[in-house]
Design a protein that fits this description.
Layout: H1 2-5, H2 14-38, H3 49-78, H4 83-115
Helix pairs in contact: 3-4
C-alpha cells in the first residue's frame, strides 16, 4: 500500500522484475524438459534386442503350447489319443509362426517409423 501512495506500482520494482524474469526462465526450462520427455529417445521406444527376442520366442511357444493343450484335452474327452493332440500341435506351430511373423512386421514398422522412413543409406 505504501508503494501505491508513492505512485509506484508493486510490479514496477526491480526485485519484482527479477522474479518475473526468473519465472519466465523457469517456465521455458520446464517446457523444454517436458518436451524432451515426451519424445522417445532413439532406440528407446522399440525396446532392446533381448526384449524383442523374448517377445518373438514367447509368441511361438504360446502357440505351440495352446495348440498341444487343446489337442490333449480333446483327446482325453473323445478318447482319440494321440491323434487330436498331434493335429492341434501342428496347428499350434502354424499359429505360433504366424504370430511371430506378424509381431516381426509390427516391430519393423515401428523401427521404420521411429527412423523417419529414411533408407537412403
Amino acid at each position: 500500500m505504501a508503494d501505491d501512495q508513492d505512485g509506484k506500482s508493486p510490479l514496477g520494482s526491480p526485485a519484482e522484475k527479477g522474479r518475473n524474469s526468473d519465472l519466465a526462465d523457469f517456465g521455458a526450462r520446464l517446457r523444454k524438459t517436458q518436451q524432451a520427455h515426451l519424445k522417445p529417445a532413439p532406440g528407446r521406444g522399440r525396446g532392446t534386442a533381448m526384449g524383442i527376442a523374448f517377445r518373438l520366442t514367447t509368441e511361438l511357444v504360446a502357440g505351440v503350447f495352446v495348440g498341444g493343450a487343446i489337442g490333449w484335452v480333446l483327446d482325453q474327452w473323445l478318447g482319440t489319443t494321440p491323434w487330436l493332440m498331434l493335429v492341434f500341435f501342428f496347428i499350434g506351430v502354424a499359429a505360433g509362426i504366424l504370430n511371430v511373423y506378424r509381431a516381426a512386421q509390427q516391430i519393423t514398422a515401428a523401427a521404420e517409423r521411429d527412423a523417419g522412413g529414411d533408407h537412403s543409406g
